TrEMBL record:
PANTHER family: SARCOSINE DEHYDROGENASE-RELATED (PTHR13847), TRANSFERASE CAF17, MITOCHONDRIAL-RELATED (PTHR13847:SF181). InterPro entries: FAD-dep_OxRdtase (IPR006076), FAD/NAD-bd_sf (IPR036188). SUPFAM superfamilies: FAD-linked reductases, C-terminal domain (SSF54373), FAD/NAD(P)-binding domain (SSF51905). One of its GO terms (cellular component) is mitochondrion. This is FAD dependent oxidoreductase domain-containing protein. Pfam families: DAO. Gene3D superfamilies: D-Amino Acid Oxidase, subunit A, domain 2, FAD/NAD(P)-binding domain. Residues 7-334 form the FAD dependent oxidoreductase domain.
Length: 338
C-alpha cells in the first residue's frame, strides 16, 4: 500500500466515514482513513450509541442536515445480512407540560417550512404508536416519520464500502496517529504506531477522533474547543409486556418509534423485548482530555439514574416498573464549548 495520500482522515466512526464518503462523492481520488482500533465497530461512541436519528429541530439548517442524513441512510444497502443498518420507526417528541406542548406546536409549524413531515398527536394517538406509554402522563406529542434508529457502526461501514467502491478511498485499522509532521506551517505527514506504515505523507489531515481529538492536537499547540462528557444509557432485562418480540428476528428489534421526553432530558428506544433508556438527567461528568483512555465508555454511576430519572421512566411507561437491567454504562462523546 502506498504510504502517501492527499488527505488522511483520523477515525472510522460515523464522522470520519461520512467525511470519506462525501469526499469521494465530490470526486476526491486519494483519501486514506486510519483508525487506532478495529475499523467501524470499536471503542468509539458510534459503536455503543443507541443510534437515534432525529431529523427535526427548531434550526432550519440542522433540520436540512437531519433530513439529508435520514434520506442518505435509507438509501444505503444494509451492511450485514444478520442485522438492520437502519430501522425506520419514526420519532415521537412527547410533552409533559403545557409549555413543552406549545413548543411542539411551534416546531410543527417550523417543520412545514423546513420540509420535514410531522404530525401533532393527542395522548391517545401517541399511545397507539407506543402502547407502553401511560397516555395520561403526557399533554401530547409530535410524530416525525423520518426519525430512525441506526446501527452506527454499520452505517459507518456502509458509507466506507460505498466510498471504497469509487476507487478513491482506502481504510486501514489498527493504525493510531501518534503525531502530525508539520514543515513551514504546512502538514506534510501523519506518523503512526503501525510498523508497516510509520510515516504517511499527506497534504491534509482531517481529525475525526471525537473525544481523543483534543489530546492529539495539544502536542501541536492547537487547543480544540471540545470536551468529553458522559451520558448514561441503560437497557432493561426482557419485559413481560414485550415477550412476543423475537430477538432472532432483526426486523423486530425496533418496531416502536423512539420517544423523547425533553423536560426530563430522557429518551426511550426499543431493543426487541427490552427497552433502552437514555438519560441526561444527571450532574455533568466532564472528562478531561488527559483522562480519556482507550474506550469511550465509563462505568455506570447508579446514583445518577436511580431516583428521579428512573421514577419518571416508570411513570411514563408502567411496563418498566420493577425491571432489572441487562446493560448500563456511561458513554462519552465530545461537546463543543457552546
Ligand atoms: C450513550 C450515547 C448515546 C448516544 N445517542 C446518540 C443518538 O441517539 N443519536 C446521535 O446522533 N448521537 C448519539 N450519541 C452521540 C454519538 O454517538 C457521537 O456524537 C458520534 O458517535 C461521534 O462519532 P465520531 O465519529 O465523532 O466518534 P467515534 O465513533 O468515537 O469515532 C472516533 C474514532 O477515532 C478513532 N481514534 C481515536 N484516536 C485515534 C488515533 N490517535 N488514531 C487513529 N484513530 C483514532 C477511534 O478509535 C474511533 O474509531 C450518543 C452518544 C452516547 C455516548
Amino acid at each position: 500500500m502506498s504510504h502517501k495520500a492527499q488527505v488522511i482522515i483520523i477515525g472510522s466512526g460515523i464522522v470520519g466515514c461520512a467525511a470519506a464518503y462525501h469526499l469521494t462523492q465530490f470526486g476526491w481520488k486519494d483519501v486514506l482513513l486510519i483508525d487506532k482500533g478495529e475499523l467501524f465497530e470499536n471503542d468509539g461512541s458510534t459503536s455503543h450509541a443507541p443510534g437515534g436519528v432525529v431529523p427535526l429541530s427548531h434550526n432550519k439548517l440542522m433540520t436540512q442536515f437531519g433530513v439529508y442524513t435520514a434520506d442518505l441512510i435509507a438509501s444505503l444497502e444494509h451492511f450485514r445480512s444478520d442485522r438492520n443498518t437502519y430501522n425506520l420507526g419514526g420519532q415521537l417528541e412527547m410533552a409533559i407540560s403545557e409549555a413543552r406542548w406549545q413548543d411542539l406546536i411551534r416546531l410543527h409549524g417550523s417543520s412545514k417550512a423546513y420540509g420535514c413531515e410531522s404530525h401533532l398527536l393527542t395522548p391517545q394517538e401517541t399511545q397507539e404508536k407506543l402502547p407502553l406509554l401511560a397516555a395520561e402522563q403526557i399533554v401530547g406529542s409530535l410524530f416525525v416519520p423520518k426519525g430512525m434508529i441506526v446501527k452506527g457502526a454499520d452505517v459507518s461501514a456502509a458509507l466506507a464500502r460505498d466510498a471504497e467502491a469509487t476507487g478513491g478511498a482506502r481504510f486501514v485499522g489498527h493504525t493510531a496517529m501518534t503525531d502530525i509532521e508539520v514543515k513551514n506551517g504546512q502538514v506534510t505527514a501523519v506518523l503512526t504506531n503501525n510498523p508497516d506504515m510509520p510515516r504517511i505523507a499527506c497534504e491534509q489531515v482531517l481529525l475525526c477522533a471525537n473525544i481523543w481529538a483534543p489530546a492529539l492536537t495539544e502536542k501541536l499547540g492547537v487547543a480544540l474547543p471540545l470536551m468529553a462528557f458522559e451520558h448514561q444509557y441503560s437497557i432493561t432485562e426482557p419485559l413481560a409486556k414485550l415477550a412476543n418480540f423475537d430477538r432472532s428476528d432483526k426486523d423486530q428489534e425496533v418496531t416502536y418509534p423512539t420517544a423523547r421526553e425533553l423536560d426530563s432530558a430522557m429518551y426511550f428506544r426499543q431493543h426487541w423485548d427490552a427497552y433502552g433508556i437514555g438519560s441526561y438527567w444527571h450532574k455533568p461528568h466532564m472528562v478531561r482530555p488527559r483522562d480519556v483512555k482507550k474506550t469511550a465508555m465509563h462505568p455506570f454511576t447508579p446514583e445518577d439514574f436511580f431516583g428521579e430519572p428512573w421514577d419518571q421512566a416508570q411513570r411514563l411507561m408502567p411496563a418498566l416498573r420493577g425491571a432489572e437491567f441487562e446493560t448500563q454504562f456511561n458513554g462519552m462523546f465530545a461537546f463543543s464549548v457552546d
